[in-house]
Amino acid sequence: MARKPGSSPQAMKNRAAKTAAAIAPASALAQSAPAKKRVSPAQFFREVRAEARKITWTTRKETWITTVMVGIMVVLAALFFMVVDWLLGTGMNLLLSLANGG
């Protein structure tokens, strides 16, 4: 029986070694991370304020367009489910009237 290329024990060991080498720096970095030190409340709020400045808020126009689109989708979904409910109800009434003999 012929072996598949790369299925020899040596090839598998080489692949395992490459994988371990690629993973090792990440795990070594995670283990050597220093313990978190306590931050003063003033420093915490400065960092929060700096992060809040990075937020990009949607414009009034974008918010309005998104709201209208959501409203349209709600109306379309309601109409769809109303039609499906009516069809199933009519079908069940027809089936039950046939089962009752008339």
From TrEMBL:
It is found in: Cell membrane; Membrane. The keyword DNA-binding does not apply. InterPro entries: SecE_bac (IPR005807), SecE_sf (IPR038379), Translocase_SecE/Sec61-g (IPR001901). The chain crosses the membrane at residues 64-88. The keyword Membrane applies. Keywords: Cell membrane, Membrane, Protein transport, Translocation, Transmembrane, Transmembrane helix, Transport. It comes from the Bacteria. Its main location: membrane. It is a single-pass membrane protein. Component of the Sec protein translocase complex. Heterotrimer consisting of SecY, SecE and SecG subunits. The heterotrimers can form oligomers, although 1 heterotrimer is thought to be able to translocate proteins. Interacts with the ribosome. Interacts with SecDF, and other proteins may be involved. Interacts with SecA. Essential subunit of the Sec protein translocation channel SecYEG. Clamps together the 2 halves of SecY. May contact the channel plug during translocation. Belongs to the SecE/SEC61-gamma family. This is Protein translocase subunit SecE. It comes from Phenylobacterium koreense. The lineage of its organism: Bacteria, Pseudomonadati, Pseudomonadota, Alphaproteobacteria, Caulobacterales.
